[in-house]
Amino acid sequence: MSVAEAPVARAVVRGSVRGARVREALFRAALLLCIGFAMLALAVLLADVAVDGLPVLSLDFLTSFPSQVFPERSGIQSALVGTLLLMVVCAVFIVPVGTATAIYLEEYADRDRWWNRLIEVNVQNLVAVPSIVYGILGLAFLVRGPLELGRVLLAGALTLGLLVLPVVIIVGREAIRAVPSSIREGSLALGATQWQTIWKQILPGALPGIATGVILALSRAIGETAPLIVVGAAAFARFNPNDLTNDPFSALPIQILAWVQAPQEEFRVLAAGAILVLLALLLVMNAGAIHLRNRYEQRW
Amino acid sequence: MAARPEAATAPGGPRPSLVRGRTRRSVGEHVIKGLLLAAAVLSVATTVGIVVSLLGETIEFFGQVSVGEYLLGTKWTPLSSGEQQSFGVIPLITGTLYLTALGLIVAVPLGLGSAIYLAEYASPRARRVIKPVLEILAGIPTIVLGYFALTFITPVVLQGIFGIDVQIFNALSAGLALGVLILPVVATLADDALRAVPEALREGAFGIGASRRQVVLRVVFPAALSGIVAALVLAASRAIGETVVVLVAGGASANLGIDPRESYQNMAAFIAQTARGDIAVRSVEFLTIFAVGTTLFVMTLILNAISIRFVRRFQQVYE
Amino acid sequence: MWLGLALVGGLALVGAACGQGGGGAQGSQGDLSGTFQIDGSSTVQPFAQAAAELFQEENPGVRITVGGAGTGDGFERFCRGETEISDASRPIEPDEKKACDEQGVKTGEVQVANDGIAVVTDKGTAIDCMTTDQLREIFAPDADARTFRDVDPRFPATPMKLFTPGEESGTFDFFTEEVNGEEGAQRTEGVQTSADDNQLVTGVSGTRGGIGYFGYEYFTQNEGKLNATAVDGGSGCVRPSPKTIQDGSYRPLSRPIFMYPSEKSLARPEVREFMRFTVANAPRIAEAAKIVPMTGERVSDSRRSLERLTGR
Asked: How many Å is the Cα radius of gyration of chain A?
């Protein structure tokens, strides 16, 4: 008898038919309530933000700078530019490093060696570390410490990059693994070196998957607030950073945080507007990822 | 919108090299391999960096505050002066655990219920609607949930609809928001675990006349238990380290207690708040960031190890 | 995918470029340029912020960031050379001055406005007036009053929840010195502290039985949500208002607030012009920030203090 047959059989024999039907219906209803709650929560959240934030959205909102003194003139230019720049710099960091690590782990690493297993376990552990701890890491090593970059955009972007790097690595590995061995073996049989095989055959095949992973990682990165708090992003910056290694910078989540915590009603509304912009940005990115996946997915 | 990186199981291994002999190209090959290895080592370097950045300053902290006072003290007022300054971390730990528990109370039943419906009852068309909803919920930035807690949950739901006499910063609101935050984690991972249970088990139970509810509760759920527990542990780990929701909605005082109408603080929110305040670098107040950071890091490491153990057991059942 | 990334990257660069141009399309107004930081008292912060905004409108090449870490922390950063101007809601202390001198930072006091510390409760707890003794019974380190009635039988029996600034704050220093008799000494149990005055406003206004204190302008900006008690400093109940704060009759909680530039930073034209602008326009800036302005004679005093600092 399998694992659960005996108690099930006993239950079946004991239950009455009509009672059973009621119990079935109740159970199903309870489950539906659970899903209903999740969907309701999402709907209410979006509605709350939209009701407060939509009236604020305008071109002025996107192009003005935040003002503490004249809230009605406030906008998110510095925060939005900061977020976009963070995304670009972060991508420049995580694309090569993440892809290289994924390639190494899938194509070169001998799993019997302890150091390779260490790297693998490491990546899995890093995924579970809270983002605030990454903030502390950034503060200790990038803002102060050996690199002493100060509270600049580069430090913020690298901190976020370290945070989402494991995502790129793991997704990249899956994408590379999905390329069938026949491709590899065929290429090697024709005399290509391992690197030539990777560069010309495997990477192009895995590229859509890797790209999707990068976009997902970036959308996670730009929604993060905690590491940026510790690294020292500014709220109410009335300018965009010119010098990524010298100027103070702002970011959407930080500006939203500052506005949320201000008790005056005008700032709450601004926070809602900025949230809508952030959500829109995330929507565009994720739609892009889905489109990529659908359009370029290789059918092996 | 969620990436689910925890899923990685890694078959594969070294592929047999079909290159004959050593050619001039293999020097380049070694260089490339070296570069790739260097990139991979960066992940190890990150972990080492985290440990080093935390440990060094933590040790310095314990040079000024005794370990006993830290671990056993029940008053956490590092930013007060003189006699009122106290470094007992217990209120932060209880605050963290309490808020996490509140979040789990919301997320576990609702998340598991959602997962069971998705895996066992939903039609493919329903799945196509519900799954994306869960993914969207998972992708909502935490600051948005903090906003939602402070501007909606507290005034409208708690004070308004339910008429509870809560403070503006309270654990109930933060806990509810945390629950909404981790619900998709529970739901999607539990869904995976349930769907991994082989059809044969279900069919066997249906074959002897069990109802769907009985099949789910008595057969599928127990069979998927390891995976489900792994999901719960991961969700708890996520909630333990959550910063912004608690920072915005939970308030700034490290109180000891379990009254959900009061405000409590967790470790991550304390770190964020203190790091913002821009305290003098070498002061013991600044060093609290690292001591508390280490405590938090250790907690999540332990939870993660437990979760991996359950995932491994869960995989072994079906391999 | 590369197209997408390039597009986003292009957007970002365009945005950054627009940022430069957008700040001042005319360009001819003000050739000053440079970046500098102001940090310190959160009470002075709205004033400094307003000054920075108004100044930057005329001088778009200058970039100013304003923080509100607290008077004490502000001075620490200032003495380390991390900021060019320090905001303070109390005068610099001798050991802070010494630390600055030791690190080569010479500074002097420039008053920019007035402030009164408002003692506030939530709208549901209407308390008209409190004496400083009663305040001490609530805020002192050894205070054990739990409800307002413990302090005065005429007050409501609501349990008190305290919200105050923390150790880094000049407001905290000033209040504890004046009310509790010793700077830095305050009750810790039942108290939420925050360096962010906005959080205090939210806390007091959203909690039944909430009571706290912070700079007067945080009250005026949130008047609908809070109730400010009159304070009896020995000569009768005085309600905080611009007049009573300016003439000092709101005792003992009225005080001047300052900006401390360093001689080194004043050597830079953009900082010098900013300070001159701020002092000359102090009353207008104070109005914009809803802070109590200085009287005309005080403005002249400040101008002289500033000239002394720049002249040296």
From this structure: 25
C177 contact A CB<8A: no
Of B285, B265, B234, the closest CA to residue B108 belongs to B234
A190 interfaces chain B, CB cutoff of 8 Å: no
A127: its two tokens: 């995924």
- The pLDDT tens digits for B67-123 are 999 999 888 888 777 777 889 999 999 999 999 999 999 999 999 999 999 998 989
Say if residue B306 is exposed, middle or buried (CB neighbours under 10 Å; 0-12, 13-18, 19+): middle
The model's pTM is: 0.85
Query: Residue B303: closest CA among chain A residues belongs to which residue?
Result: A128
pLDDT at residue B132, as a whole number: 87
Best mutation site among A60, A65, A238, A286 for testing chain C: the one with the most C CBs within 10 Å? A238
Q: Angle at the Cα of C84 (from B277 to B276), degrees rounded to 5?
A: 10
Hey, what domains does chain C have and what are their CATH numbers?
36-114+256-311 (3.40.190.10), 115-254 (3.40.190.10)
Range of the structural domain that residue B141 is part of: 86-318
Tell me which of A42 and A237 has the higher pLDDT: A42
Interface contact flag, C22 A81, Cβ < 8 Å: no
Q: Assign A264 a pLDDT band (cuts: 50, 70, 90).
A: confident
Structural domain count, chain B: 1
What's the Cα-to-Cα distance from A106 to each of A76, A161, B6, B29, B89, rounded to whole Å?
Answer: 43, 21, 17, 16, 43
- Residues of B within an 8 Å Cβ radius of C: 75, 77, 79-84, 86, 154-155, 165, 167-169, 251-253, 263, 273, 276-280
Rounded-to-integer distance, Cα A79 and Cα A10, Å: 63
- Other CB atoms within a 10 A radius of the CB of residue B190 amount to 28
Asked, for residue B52, whether it belongs to a domain, the answer is no
Report DSSP letters for B279-303, one per residue. Answer: --TTSHHHHHHHHHHHHHHHHHHHH
- pLDDT tens per residue, range A116-157: 888 888 888 888 899 999 999 998 889 888 888 888 899 999
Tokens 């307003």 label which residue?
C50
Domain ranges of chain A: 5-55, 62-296
C22 close contact with B: CB closer than 8 A: no
- Taking the C-alpha atoms of residue B264 and residue B170, their distance in angstroms, rounded to an integer, is 7
Residue type, B262: E
Token match 């859509």: residue? A208
Q: pLDDT tens-digit profile of B22-32?
A: 555 677 888 88
Contacts of residue B88, Cβ cutoff 8 Å, sequence gap at least 6: B69, B70, B72, B73, B74, B75, B76
Q: Which CATH superfamily is domain A62-296 in?
A: MetI-like (1.10.3720.10)
Has residue B237 been placed in a domain? yes
Give the residue among A169, A112, A199 at the shortest CA–CA distance from B40.
A169
Contact check, Cβ <8 Å, C69/B278: yes
Pairwise CA distance, residues B289 & C15, whole Å: 35
Asked whether C50 and C112 are in contact (CB, 8 A), the reply is no
Residue A94 has pLDDT above 90, yes or no: yes
Phi, psi dihedrals of residue C276, rounded to the nearest 5°: -60, -45
Q: What is B68-95 written as a DSSP string?
A: HHHHH---EETTS-GGG-EE--HHHHHH
C37 in contact with B, Cβ within 8 Å: no
